[in-house]
Amino acid sequence: MSAAARPVTAGKTRVCPHCKALVLESLSICPGCRHHLRFDVEAAQRQEAAIRALEVEGEVSHPRGEDPCEYSIVVTVRNDKGQEIARKLVAVGALQSGEHCSVALAVEVLPIRAPAQPEPDVLAVVPAPAEPQPVPAGRRLPDGTLLTPPGMKPKR
Question: Is the pLDDT of residue 5 over 80?
């Protein structure tokens, strides 16, 4: 766990400071307004690992006729016993003759913990070759060359 990571309590919520929507406390980006809620690597990895469990998109068209019609978009969530957990009115509006609007619903499922990241490949640290140290004039090198003062040619 990184130093910035916080323990995750499944289902705990908080209010997004940007759009005031109720969001999961563990998220790093608000799903409503898409603003950053915190800069936490582990939370970002969790959110990237989200699985899109349900995605529905559809279009609502004005029924044939001249008079405008109104619409309401309501989302209802039920648990496995069929009990209503939440019911939200998402939007209302009106359609004139020939108009349409589209509606998309997505449900993402997030893991409680960030997925394990593979260990990065560790590169071997190879020391740089040492700079050759200057050899004082008049010394013989291993190849037999005699170093001489500047301006004179070396002898073999």
Answer: no
How many domains, the chain?
A: 2
Do the strands 69-78 and 84-95 form a parallel or antiparallel pair, or are they unpaired? Answer: antiparallel
pTM: 0.54
Tokens encoding 43: 């939370």
Q: How many residues does the chain have?
A: 156
One domain for residues 44 and 56 = no
Question: Rg of the Cα trace of the chain?
Answer: 34
d(CA 40, CA 15): 18
Q: How far apart are CA 143 and CA 113, in angstroms?
A: 64
Sign of the torsion angle spanned by Cα atoms 34, 38, 40, 46:
negative
Helix (H, G, I), strand (E, B) or coil at 21: coil
Distance CA 74, CA 106 (A): 14
The first and second tokens of residue 85, run together, are: 């957990």
pLDDT digits (tens, 9 = 90+) for 108-155: 888 777 666 555 666 666 666 766 665 555 666 777 776 666 665 555
